[in-house]
Structures are given as C-alpha cells and as structure tokens.
Amino acid sequence: IRLxxxxxxxxxxxxxxxxxxxxxxxxxxxxxxxxSLKQLxxxxxxxxTRIYNIESGKQKHPKSVIxxxxxxxxxxxYNKLLDYKFADYYKKEKxxxxxxxxxxxxx
Length: 107
Description:
Blueprint: H1 2-16, H2 22-32, H3 37-44, H4 48-56, H5 64-74, H6 78-85, H7 87-106
C-alpha cells in the first residue's frame, strides 16, 4: 500500500511541479488587479488582517462567505476558490479510495 501511495504522490508532484494554494491564488489575482490589501478588505467588508492571513496561508480554510465576497471583488470563479479550499480533503479522499481498493484486492 505504501508503494502505491508513494507512486501516486510522486506522479502528482511530477505533473504539477509547484502547486499554488488558495492564498497564493488570491494574492496573485489581487496584484494582477493592482489592488492593495486595504482596498480588497474594504470591498470584502473584513479586516486587512483576515485577508493577509488568508493570503499567507495562516488561515487555510476561510469561511465560504468570505470566499464568495473575495470572488466577487476579484472577479474570480467562486467554485474554483472552493476547489482550492477543499484540495486537501480531495487529496485525502483519493488516498482513502486507493487504500480501500488495495485492501479489497488482497481478499
């Protein structure tokens, strides 16, 4: 099982290279729009600290309402932000399915 998980993880790294997380994605878009943290915070109606924490990765799972407001302010696809938010969950779920398949194969 460990070998299979290692191979899957290796293939993902090989495909993706360096993956962008939720905070980096939001920060890149904010910079592209030439918007400061203060301007975004004002549009989203939250604190500058909260936006900073999301962008820096300190807050990995922000509330969906905040993500919705950010998507509106930065003209982003809300569903894509949710995909970034739940990426860790999807990855864990993928490994669970592989482990389950390996257990079933032994029987």
